[in-house]
Amino acid sequence: MLKIDAIHLREINMPLAYPFETSFGLTTGRRILLVELESEGRTAWGECVAGEHPYFSDEMIDTAWIITESELAPRLLAAEISHGGDVPDLFKPVRGHRMAKAALENAMWDLEAQDEDVPLSELLGGVRKIIPCGVSIGIQPSLEQLMDKIATELSAGYQRIKLKCKPGWDTRIFEAVRERWPEILLSCDANSAYRMRDFDHIASWDQFKLLMIEQPLWYDDFYFHAMLQKRLETAICLDESIRNRRDALAAIDMESCRIINIKVGRVGGFSEAIAVHNAAAERGIPVWCGGMLETGIGRAHNIALSSLPNFSLPGDVSASSRYWTQDIVEPAITVSSKGEIVVPTTAGSGYPILKDRIEALTVRRSTLHARARVTV
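Below the sequence we write its predicted structure tokens.
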């Protein structure tokens, strides 16, 4: 049994090394909720990827803090569980709040991997020893700056370039990039910035031979994405719309997409991420791991997840230095000149925590201790 003695919640504030702009707006720094589990002398960490505002999802760091402190952490402290995969049933009475749930569940999987003295990737069912990496490039102040950014990332070895786009920052950008780099693996991500009136406009992007068009329409839609996919040669990839295995099955059966982005926080933790991965694999739909401007804690969990066999496309699991001047894990996560990350082989996540740096960045904290326990 995995018994939790205490759960520490911390909010840390970290400035981004470079501003990151999407159709939602510009991000220059992150408020991040970290959870630390104490269990019989061991510690394990999880990261909540909820943003500062409820723009990507209906969660934000402040709602995640409340629900973790008042509902989720007390349930985990009162329970005796044998496997990280037991956590979803423990949290089932609490509807929604998937990013908050994921932080605690992922930490439990990490704790179990330490307890069994195996790499987290192996515990999850991973088979890959290295993972291919792509990079997500935000909307830039100018086309010239975008081209310089792409050149930098290609020289660093990244195997796929993803461009954030929105109305007014799309076709002319794709044209310029394709003219300079006709053969690179290129995709775009709209974060739900387009509507039905834009169908003809989006259909014209087939000329750019994109790997995929990610989440062009509403964040909660399958039907209109299916209509749009029928108009396109290019594959639609769904991100925000896929919250769980049932959503994945619905999207696949409705032919709403041909690729799925799995973000472990968005679907509620490793258990559901594995379920989505398996559902897509059974139906021949490739998946890849998306990023949420994570620190090294969340990034290490993404690396472990990306080792599963159906993660066959380069994900957004890039180097720490793309986002942070100094990460909170040591060593920092690096990408080889071939655009690859080696999956750790040590027990747990494989990236030791810089506790002193976390303490220096902490602006809010709360600690909950175990009392009575129940078996689940």
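Residues 123-342 form a domain with the TIM Barrel fold (CATH 3.20.20.120).
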